[in-house]
Amino acid sequence: MSSGLKETKKKKKGIGLRYALKGVNFVWAEEKNFKIHSLSAVCVILLGFLFRLSNTEWLFLMFSITIVFVTEMLNSAFESLVDELYPHYHPIAGKVKDIAAGSVLIAAIGAAITGFIIFVPKIIFLIF
Ligand SMILES: Nc1ncnc2c1ncn2[C@@H]1O[C@H](COP(=O)(O)OP(=O)(O)OP(=O)(O)O)[C@@H](O)[C@H]1O
């Protein structure tokens, strides 16, 4: 490891949270999907308060929302790295991006199913 990198790492120790928040901010600023997912999460959480979810329901809901954000962040990190490493067309670049995007899709489908299982019976009960 170069001495310059070691120095930078030493300086960063102890203020890791600031850098982590910087990472969240990067994704917020650059990824439209992250904003859409954030808005959806806020709506679902408000709906959760409205329907007075049980602790277990909150746990499932928050867990699935968290997984969507985590995969979105990792997808964004992979995209940045791949764009830097492969500025031109390369099958591996496409594969890595597709797999990373696939992980977000799976997380989003899981979250949608969780939301469906929690909210649909409550909405049906409210209507009928
Ligand atoms: N360097 C590359 N080489 C080969 N295929 C690529 C390359 N860059 C992108 N692709 C293909 O194009 C798709 C879209 O790439 P892009 O960089 O636009 O990602 P994205 O998922 O649309 O990201 P975002 O919209 O969040 O910027 C990728 O999933 C991949 O299949």
Write structural notes for this entry.
The structure is a single chain. This protein has 128 residues and is mostly helical. The chain folds into two domains: 1-30, no CATH class; 31-127, Helix Hairpins (Orthogonal Bundle). Helix content is 88%, strand content 0%. The chain starts with a helix and ends with a helix. Residues 31, 79, 86, 89-90, 93-94, 97-98, 101 line the site of adenosine-5'-triphosphate.
List the helices and strands and how they pair.
Elements: H1 3-12, H2 16-30, H3 32-50, H4 55-85, H5 91-127
Helix pairs in contact: 3-4, 4-5
Bound molecules: adenosine-5'-triphosphate (ATP).
Q: What characteristic shape results from the CA principal axes?
A: extended
Unreliable residue stretches: none
CATH class of the largest domain: Mainly Alpha
Helix content: over 70%
What do the pLDDT scores average to? 93
Distance, first to last CA: 66 Å
Q: How many strands, which pairing sense, and closed or not: the largest β-sheet?
A: none
Radius of gyration: 19 Å
Overall SS class? mainly alpha
Bound molecules: adenosine-5'-triphosphate
Q: How many distinct domains?
A: 2
Number of extended strands: 0
CATH architecture of the largest domain: Orthogonal Bundle
Order of helices and strands: HHHHH
Output the number of helix runs: 5
CATH topology of the largest domain: Helix Hairpins
Binned strand content:
under 5%
